[in-house]
Inverse folding.
């Protein structure tokens, strides 16, 4: 029998026994948690192929118990409490958003933000005097203080292990949130700065190369070093060029890579900012490496190759700090964090497509306060209380259970 | 018949094993240990394209109309991150994560799947036989602690409270029957019974995985 189905069955069995025993606790999620001044917990209908579906009627308490039991450990490092089980039994779908909102106030919740960023950027621990926890510290701080989520890219400070603000550690004359840490720079150091650039775009804009020219207009071919000017190469036999692999379609990706890698050209392999960086290829070194632990620029002109100036999402930027702000303000940032949340708490692979209209609705409803801001907390509530997110998980769980039951009855029927 | 790795808990461990084998929920832990990983016999194709269906059966077999799923979801059971498991144990025991009774768990954090990217250690979310052995050993001070005794004075008498705290659901008849049957078949004293029930609940897949 499938393990996930077994677990679902175990959950379901418990849920059936629960309904009558814990009703008293429902009052705890009554008026005090039942809504916010802006009405964010109001019941809403969801379109389903043109028909309106009331989510309150669409999910059983049993389904929702299983759903929230999936989330609780990842978001608040615990299991559901008796009063939460009772609230689900009584209010069903209407219990979900208030419960998530309450979770965002718990002490354990900011640690979920730490975990998400640490895993996304593969940074934790310490080595050679470098604190690889700085990105996670900042993420936890941003969640705890209910700061705009964009602060993870725009903070002009770093945060130590005790939660206190401190200077960042690269020595750069600018800051860039989690990107402006030696932890990020060292963990993503590579030739031509390709990994730093690709991680930045993947983690915070959910973009990979090549991306649409509407997202990032290309560098003029003549400004790139010759190897990246190449579009396609026919082999010696004259056969059509291979569409894949380095050296056959360089320009398509590197004309965009070049903008983003340039932002890192003054950061050496140890993550330190170096005023003396040239961005020029080390004539005696491996391709993509500059001298003295630095990495080569994509740009041909020595004056351009050594500068921090570049472009981010079509806008000229002075340095990585400014680029990070453009990234954080872009319309791709919040939707991308929705994907990151789903990946973190549901282990949803980033390759799985999430309905665009759902992501837009989540991003919109996550804006809270005056002026409106999206925080880690508000985005968590908006994401995991969206009926179509709940439906995706619940339906899959039901299918697994049905499959499990079928397997079981088949095996019981066998001699 | 499934074979467990030999670990030296003597009669206590034998009873814990018995509990693990007999309870539906607890069997998950055993299954995971034997399979050496999570969802090892999963066939992803069997679930694909189903989670977006807008009308699906509930667990009780009823059909309800639901909003269309926002994405195709395949449940994929995995070990919870180590720090989450540590926090859960601390919460069940009613202590902070730096409490001395959790010292063994903290000391074995990397053996138990925690990450230290700076040292090249990625999170390891598999639940292997050796890892479950390490986990159970490291839990012994927790289950022997006064903190646990204060919250759950006797086991299995207070199984309801322990299961509710550890698994976030009410204990079922099946859970209780499995425990009582295992205890009845053993010759353990009350202290040993307490230990094995505690270890079994806190080692079950339902506790350590999602």
């Amino acid at each position: 029998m499938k393990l996930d189905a077994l677990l679902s069955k175990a959950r379901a069995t418990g849920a059936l026994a629960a309904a009558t025993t814990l009703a008293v606790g429902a009052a705890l999620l009554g008026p005090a948690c039942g809504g916010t001044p802006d009405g964010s917990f109001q019941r809403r209908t969801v379109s389903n192929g043109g028909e309106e579906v009331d989510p309150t009627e669409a999910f059983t308490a049993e389904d929702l118990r299983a759903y929230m039991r999936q989330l609780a450990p990842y978001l608040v490092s615990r299991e559901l409490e008796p009063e939460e089980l009772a609230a689900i039994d009584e209010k069903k779908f209407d219990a979900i958003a208030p419960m998530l909102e309450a979770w965002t106030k718990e002490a354990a919740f900011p640690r979920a933000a730490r975990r998400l960023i640490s895993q996304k950027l593969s940074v934790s621990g310490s080595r050679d005097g470098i604190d690889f926890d700085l990105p996670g510290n900042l993420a936890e701080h941003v969640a705890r203080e209910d700061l705009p989520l964009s602060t993870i890219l725009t903070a002009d400070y770093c945060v130590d292990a005790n939660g206190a603000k401190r200077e960042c550690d690269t020595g750069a004359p600018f800051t860039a949130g989690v990107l402006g840490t030696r932890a990020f720079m060292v963990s993503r150091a590579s030739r031509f700065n390709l990994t730093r650039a690709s991680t930045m775009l993947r983690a915070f804009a959910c973009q990979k190369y090549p991306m649409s020219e509407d997202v990032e207009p290309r560098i003029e071919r003549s400004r790139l070093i010759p190897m990246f000017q190449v579009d396609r190469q026919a082999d010696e036999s004259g056969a059509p060029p291979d569409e894949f692999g380095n050296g056959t379609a360089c320009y398509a990706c590197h004309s965009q890579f070049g903008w983003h890698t340039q932002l890192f050209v003054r950061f050496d392999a140890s993550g330190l900012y170096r005023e003396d960086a040239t961005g020029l290829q080390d004539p005696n070194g491996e391709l993509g490496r500059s001298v003295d632990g630095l990495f080569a620029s994509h740009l041909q002109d020595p004056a351009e190759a050594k500068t921090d100036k570049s472009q981010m999402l079509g806008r000229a930027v002075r340095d990585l700090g400014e680029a990070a702000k453009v990234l954080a303000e872009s319309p791709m940032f919040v939707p991308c964090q929705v994907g990151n949340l789903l990946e973190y708490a549901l282990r949803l692979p980033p390759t799985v497509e999430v309905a665009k209209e759902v992501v837009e609705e989540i991003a919109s409803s996550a804006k809270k306060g005056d002026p409106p801001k999206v925080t880690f907390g508000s985005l968590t509530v908006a994401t995991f209380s969206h009926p179509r997110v709940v439906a995706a998980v619940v339906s899959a769980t039901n299918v697994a259970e049905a499959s499990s039951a079928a397997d079981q009855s088949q095996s019981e029927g066998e001699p | 018949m499934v074979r467990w790795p030999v670990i030296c808990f003597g009669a206590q461990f034998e009873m814990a094993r018995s509990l693990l084998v007999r309870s539906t929920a607890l069997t998950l832990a055993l299954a995971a240990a034997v399979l050496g990983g999570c969802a090892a016999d999963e066939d992803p194709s069997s679930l694909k394209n189903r989670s977006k269906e807008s009308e699906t059966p509930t667990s009780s077999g009823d059909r309800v109309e639901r909003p269309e799923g926002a994405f195709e979801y395949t449940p994929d059971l995995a070990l919870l991150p180590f720090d989450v498991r540590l926090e859960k144990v601390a919460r069940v025991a009613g202590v902070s994560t730096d409490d001395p009774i959790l010292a063994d768990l903290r000391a074995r954090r990397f053996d138990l799947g925690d990450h230290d990217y700076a040292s090249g250690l990625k999170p390891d979310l598999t639940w292997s036989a050796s890892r479950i052995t390490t986990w159970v050993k490291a839990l012994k001070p927790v289950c022997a602690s006064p903190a646990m005794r204060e919250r759950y004075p006797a086991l299995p008498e207070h199984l309801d409270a322990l299961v509710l705290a550890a698994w976030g659901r009410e204990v079922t008849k099946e859970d209780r029957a499995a425990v009582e049957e295992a205890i009845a078949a053993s010759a353990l004293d009350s202290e040993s019974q307490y230990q094995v029930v505690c270890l079994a609940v806190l080692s079950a897949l339902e506790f350590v995985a999602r």
